[in-house]
Amino acid sequence: MTDVKLLTYLFVGASFALYIGIAIWSRAASTREFYVAGGHVHPVANGMATAADWMSAASFISMAGIIAFMGYDGTVYLMGWTGGYVLLALLLAPYLRKFGEFTVPDFIGSRYYSHAARVVAVVCLIVVSFTYVAGQMRGVGIVFSQFLDVDITAGVVIGMAVVFMYAVLGGMKGITYTQVAQYCVLIFAYLVPAIFISLLVTGNPVPQLGLGATVNDGSGLSVLEKLDRTLVELGFGPYTQGAKSPTDVFAITMALMIGTAGLPHVIVRFFTVPKVSDARKSAGYALLFIALLYTTAPAVGAFARLNFVQTVNDTAYSEVAPWFRSWEDVGLIGWLDKNQDGAIRYAPGAPFEGTPHFSADRGAHGERLLTNRPTDNGNEVYVDRDIMVLANPEIAGLPPWVIALVAAGGLAAALSTAAGLLLVISTSVSHDLIKKTLARGITDRQELLYARVAAALAIAVAGYLGVNPPGFVAQVVAFAFGLAAASLFPAILMGIFSLNMNREGAIAGMLAGLVFTFGYIVYFKFVAPEENTELHWWLGISPEGIGALGALLNFATALLVSRIGAPVPAHVRSLVHSIRVPRGAGAPRAH
User: pTM of this prediction?
Assistant: First the structure.
């Protein structure tokens, strides 16, 4: 067994043992502990857990990869997700904590005095959460397949088993303290290789400063200047110039921002602290913890693209570094020798049609042969965007322990968010559908059992989606944010700040936003993918950004329908007033 493989087993095994140990130690004994960790989490711990919950596999694995390949255009993910967290922390979180319930559908059901509104909110939440969790489980599978000689399906199953242990046993209590540990693992795993690579490329140990520093090759060029020049010579557009239209950039950024503010698994974290002031404090701590990774990601993306181009292009396949062949073996890199010269040519465009399909045979140079039809361009290399952060230490030739650390960090990022999402799904089913709607007379013990059964079923569905994902990690997650933006965010915002929004308006708005956004994404991604171009998009907005229009449709529909519905009852208007009074609140109301 190689040093990298041995260290990876050691690091991953130790981190998994830690997570399961925490779950056993913090086993939930009541629904209050299962849903909101008893409401006694310290703001610093909650800030760290929120950061881990929010920084998913998309943040750790895929965001820097998408920035690496999209350049300037990829920063929409950075701006949207960061801005969205600020929006959530300042605009929604304190008010929802003061409301004092367990779940987002709880708030919507009580605020809009309707079981139908609660059920619609549950449907929106489940669609959003399962879309999101698909990306997390794919991230788990990628890490296992590359670093532990386990195929993606088996890797997803192992990840499901670990999440089952601490999500089903510990509930929010177990997940909270597990996420604290996972944050420590993932941030250390992200920063250490970034510092190493920044030193190697520029001599500056601070990646954020290294991005603008001069490259250590005697050219006198900065990292971005060097990257621009290198890519232009290969036929690509400049790294620092965007190709997307301003309309689409704005729409994607807005969809990600308000989608973040509507994500139920992040919102529920603010229900776990003792009082409203602690919700504000934990939001501030989380923003600090998140900034450590998000300010580093642009540098990681630029370093990864530069190292990839310099390592791969014009290199004979027989002399290519071992990392290239190892990623080729798991199907996330493909090389098609179009001109039969034995050298790897990297250029714009897809090298062949579709994703790579490898045969069992090897080519004349030892490469894995593909059964795909080649395209008519000069590019011979397919590389999955999701591998760039994971492969970056190998490309840069860093020590084996750093490579193993990144594998453990990627798993921590994916599992922390997956656990939060699965808990939100299970609590919505057990608390909002069963306890509050279908079987209101069940005991606390029965409700806890239903929550654990729902969590187990949710994990099984998440595993299937991880094996059969509808796109690469950041893309899948972007769809989830778009769906949250179009369905939950407007209902939450109007529920807090509008005294006149009634149940008819809220229900109609959520359904209109969800159906429109979901239909748009499904059409362009699955029904007619050949039409997924700016020429066919409505108003030039891509499926990743359509959630912004879906949110506008939600607002417009809700406002229109609310005018013809019955007035909001006096007790609900009083509830809205009480939520907005800037004083602390006690524990969640008894159930």
Answer: 0.81
